[in-house]
Every structure is written in structure tokens, then in C-alpha cells.
Amino acid sequence: MAQVLLIDDDVVLLAMLKNYLERENFDVVVANDAAAGFELAMSGKFDLTMLDIMMPSVSGIELLRKIRQQSQLPILMLTARGDDSDRVIGLELGADDYVTKPCSPRELTARIRAILRRTTKEATDGPKSEMLQSNALILWPEKRLAKLNEEKLDLTSAEFNLLEILVRHSGHPVSKQVLSTQGLGRAISKYDRNVDVHLSSLRQKLGTMRDGRSWIQTVYRLGYQFIKE
Fold first, then answer.
1. Phi and psi at residue 128, to the nearest 5°
2. pLDDT in tens, 157-175
3. Which of 52, 58, 120, 190 could form a disulfide with 78 if both were Cys (CB 3.0 to 4.6 A apart)?
4. What's residue 83's pLDDT?
5. Domains in the chain, please, with CATH?
6. SS3 for 167?
7. Whole-number Cα distances in Å, 113 to 4, 48, 107, 214
8. CA-CA distances (angstroms) from residue 78 to 3, 33, 81, 118, 197?
């Protein structure tokens, strides 16, 4: 049974979501403020956290930043509809996905399950001993471990998934639709920038090749490609 932490100051909403998720066989704990939420998130007991961006005192963005400084716990943001700037900032800080308010419990459950599917070892494709390598980059999918020039990369679950897909197709472009479906667990929508924001963060973490180029190149009208030296 997956352990899920819900952090939101809306007591009524949390009670409704907790009741629904428990019927869907999740073990749910709720926190109504950022301080309590942070302490629980750092406990190591949870498989995923849902975090409301709009909270009093300490904002959800600040809480997300604090959590990411110490943990790669999967995080699903809850944001106001049309609040694009907060969504982009949240994704840049390492959130895995977002759901907009008002959201249906069914949609939230689907997003949670999609994140959990791609962050659990049981969902990893390929043999247990599999290692992927392209140039100086090495990935161990089962361990969720990536190293570049023998230095460990600190990646979120979404970043690791996208990088794994690109490395498996190294030297060939991969469409945003494929990256979103296989890497983020959902089809891409018309104005969806999730893939772009995650890859922007991933590029920064990878740095540049010896000739100054990014490891991940945009291929016009085709998508993104991991470069082979």
C-alpha cells in the first residue's frame, strides 16, 4: 500500500481527498501547514507528497525548495488554474507533476498512480543488471542512478525518466509526445510545458560537452535528442 502525504491548508479539501484516496487503497496522512508537512516529508515514510502551492505563512514554493534541498521524494503540485508562473517555477525546482484546482479526486488519483508507476523499482523495464551508457554518461535504471564523468547526478524522478528515454534513443530524436507519455505518464496537451521545463533543468545538471554544446539538443519539429560524441 503506497504511503501518500497531502499538504494543504484547506481542511475540507484534504478530508475529501483523504477519504477518496483511502478507498483507492492508499495509506494517507494529511498536514495543514508547511512546518508540519516538511517534518513529515523528511521522515522517509512516504512514497509521494501532494503539495498545495498557495499556503499561508510559508508558501508551497518555499516548502518545495526546502524538500528538494534534502530529498528526491516524488512531489505532485496542486496549483490554481491559470497560474502558469507557479507551475513553471515548481517544475524547475523539481516537482514531478501538477494538478490544477479545482481537481477531481479521480484525476488526482490517476496522476499519483502515474508518478508511482515510474518511480518504483518494480515498474522499471529491462533486466535487473541493466546498465545504459552513452559517452561519459552511465545509467542504472533499477537503482535510479546516473553518473556523468563518474560524478553522481542528483536527478528528480521525472528528470531520470526523460534522460533514460533519450539515452535509449541516443543519436536519434524523440518526440515530446513520447517523452511525456513514457517519461511523465500522461499524454501531452496543447500548451503543456512540462517536458520543456524538466529538460531545461536536466540540461543545467548535465552541463555541456567538450565543444560547448548541450548534451540534449532540440531537433526542429521532431523533439529532443541526446547527442553522441
1. -60, -30
2. 889 999 999 999 999 999 9
3. 52
4. 67
5. 3-122 (3.40.50.2300), 124-226 (1.10.10.10)
6. helix
7. 11, 10, 10, 32
8. 18, 14, 9, 20, 17
